[in-house]
Amino acid sequence: MKKKPNTPGKPSGPSFSLWKRCLQYKELLLFLLPAVVLVLVFNYFPMYGIIMAFQDFVPSKGILGSSFVGLAQFERFFRLPTFGSLIGNTVKISLLSLVVNFPLPIFLALLLNQIQKEKVRKAAQTLTYMPHFISVVVAVGMLNVLLSPSGGIYGGICKAFGIKGVNIFGKLGAFQWLYVFSDAWQHTGWNSIIYLAALSSVDPSLYEAATVDGANRLDKLFHIDIPTLVPTMVILLILNTGNILNVGFEKIFLMQNPSNAAVSEVISTYVYKIGLKSAQYSFSAAVGLFNTVINFIVLLFVNQVSKKVADTSLW
Amino acid sequence: MKKRVHRPTQKRLSDILIDILVYTVIFLAVVVAAYPVYFVCIASISNPMAVSRGEILLWPKEINFMGYEKVFEDARVWIGYRNTLFYTFSGTLLSLLFTIPAAYALSRKETPFRQPLMFFFTFTMFFSGGLIPTYFLMQNLHLVNTIWVMIVPFSVSVYNLIVTRTFFQTSIPEELFEAARIDGCSYTRFLFQIVLPLSKAIIAVIGLYYAVGYWNEYMRALIYVQNKDLVPLQLVLRSILVENQAVEASSLGSESRRLLADLLKYALIVVSTLPMIILYPLLQKYFEKGVMIGSIKG
User: Fold this and answer.
1) What is the mean pLDDT of residues B121-133?
2) Domain-by-domain residue ranges, chain A?
């Protein structure tokens, strides 16, 4: 970048030249203005509202008028009889999701990459990522009708074989698996695209050289394909673990019913219920803040570890 | 001599085995992914009795459109559809209008405060005020129960912003900019006349991301919109598909009412998902590009 000489006689210095730069590039700053204002108002301003987690917040008095109670709301949360099961359910569903839904897209990408016929591969890819566009509401609705014992695919198969189907949604143990596998159904194809993109960036001469050296397809898979994917895998793993307490509110909320409440109540659905349904604002804000902070700490920790171990990190 | 003839055939045999394995697994994956969608489609035009007997597997039976008739008789579906179309169109337009110029500015090295601004945006991906403070903000701004809450507050997605910025950084040649600058071209003109025509792929991709987001959005409506005239399709779907508020009490017996409710659900799933399924093959060729750019860090 070219430096502009200061006009003699005028005050100079960092603040002055910064002001001049802003004027010079005011068009670019104007481009940014709407986005900055929106994020400031709707993402940053609510962070000021976090204060209410340390208060006994009364809406009519506002944040400035409500009294402070220190960490009382957090203590109340930790003493809650359901505290253990809330954390347990959240972590369990999260980890199960990670264990199932992290490797699946990698397998799919490696397999798709083995298909040499371009058209077949494209068609398979297109069909596997189609369910990604189905909304959560429709996905849960589909689960309900397709897996009902009296109709749909499951009921039909049961009747065809003369078995009496069970009500899967009434089974406590089935909830997490329904959650995890319906996610796998919806997103495995889509999530594999990123790995396929990484695989397509491999220099073809590398495969040729390997062939000349007598490598077979499995050798190439283990010594070229998989190492290529490692950086992408690490980044996605960090991002996923950073969300360990953020199991999707939307889907769980839709899948909840009185018979599975014992395993389906997670932090985010609890925050919604106590906050917006029973109007315990400060308590709900405190539980929400606890969730956010734990996530943030896990993310920082995993990021640091992977920086040391795998030399890959988010920042 | 014998060995030299033998080895290639053996190699091919192992290749064939791997191919068989690969194709089998991929075939199964495709069936698992696509069959439920296909089943919903054929069940929506079949006789519900046949569906419940498990006779519908590959082809529809006794084709009829009763489910669709029932869906279109329901006023809630029409209202929801109208609202969602409005939210999706206006929301996507607004999002593109705010995201593209901001992404362009972030892609230029000379933009003042570029690094702090990047941090300003990315930080919100990992930390937020949470549900309750955000709810009070919406209330204080009088956005609750208005159409605005569905389109304005979260019209800029930081993820899409960064993807677009990376695209501009990597695919708009700097020489073009320098040449235009010498001719006295302003940033605004450069953006509209040179950058945008070169960026159809990324506009298609993030436009689709935004549109799918608005179309499928339900949580925001659940929290902020109670007015029956403003609810989007997804909330209507929730009450019919998930809460089973399907068919009004009629003279039918409980068994046939349940069958009719199921038929209506199949038809409703098709009707509500159709626009996204139509949109997606049209823009499909851009997806991979979009995801690939998203994966580049920097």
Assistant:
1) 86
2) 88-279
The letter for the amino acid at A285 is A
pLDDT the model gives residue A31: 93
Across chain B, mean pLDDT equals: 84
Q: Report the residue of A17, A18, A28, A276 to disrupt the B interface, i.e. the one with the largest count of B CBs within 10 Å.
A: A28
CB atoms within 10 A of CB B285: 11
Torsion of CA A242, A243, A245, A251, to 10 degrees: -170
User: Can you tell me whether residue B46 is helix, strand or coil?
Assistant: coil
Alpha-carbon span B114 to A260, nearest angstrom:
49
First to last CA, chain B: 56
- How many percent of chain B have pLDDT more than 70? 89
Ranges of chain A whose pLDDT falls below 50: 1-10
B30-52: burial string, b at 16+ Cβ within 10 Å, e else: beebbebbebbbbbbbbbbeebb
Enumerate the domain spans of chain B.
2-44, 66-295
CA distances from A248 to A265, B7, B60, B271 (A): 12, 53, 35, 25
Cα A36 → chain centroid: 24
Which of B132, B195, B210, B258 best probes binding to A when mutated, by most A CB atoms within 10 angstroms?
B132
* Closest CA–CA distance from residue B82 to any residue of chain A (Å): 17
**pLDDT digit string (tens) for B215-272?**
999 889 999 998 889 999 999 999 888 887 655 545 556 777 778 888 888 999 999 9
B160-184 tens-digit pLDDT:
898 888 888 888 888 888 888 888 8
Taking the CA of residue B34 and the nearest CA in chain A, the distance in Å comes to 6
CATH of the structural domain B66-295, one choice from 1.10.260.40, 2.40.50.140, 3.40.1190.10, 1.10.3720.10: 1.10.3720.10
Contact between B44 and B62 under an 8 Å Cβ cutoff? The reply is no
Instruction: State how far the Cα of A44 lies from the Cα of A115, in Å rounded to an integer.
Output: 47
CA dihedral B257, B258, B259, B261 (to 10 degrees): 90
pLDDT the model gives residue B117 = 92
Which architecture, in CATH terms, is A88-279? Orthogonal Bundle (1.10)
Choose among B205, B221, B199: nearest CA to B157.
Answer: B205
Q: Which residues of A touch B269 (CB under 8 A)?
A: 138, 141-142
DSSP secondary structure of B105-154: HHH-TTSTTHHHHHHHHHHHHH----HHHHHHHHHHTT-TTSSHHHHSTT
- Interface contact flag, B124 A39, Cβ < 8 Å: yes
Contact of A220 with A210, CB cutoff 8 Å: yes
Determine how β-strand A67-68 pairs with β-strand A55-56. Answer: antiparallel
**Which residues, 6 or more positions from A79, have their beta carbon under 8 angstroms from its beta carbon?**
none
Q: Do B169 and B195 contact (CB within 8 A), yes or no? A: no
Looking at beta carbons, which residues of chain B come within 8 Å of A38? 98, 152-156
ipTM: 0.84
For residue A265, the number of C-alpha atoms closer than 13 Å in the C-beta half-sphere is: 14
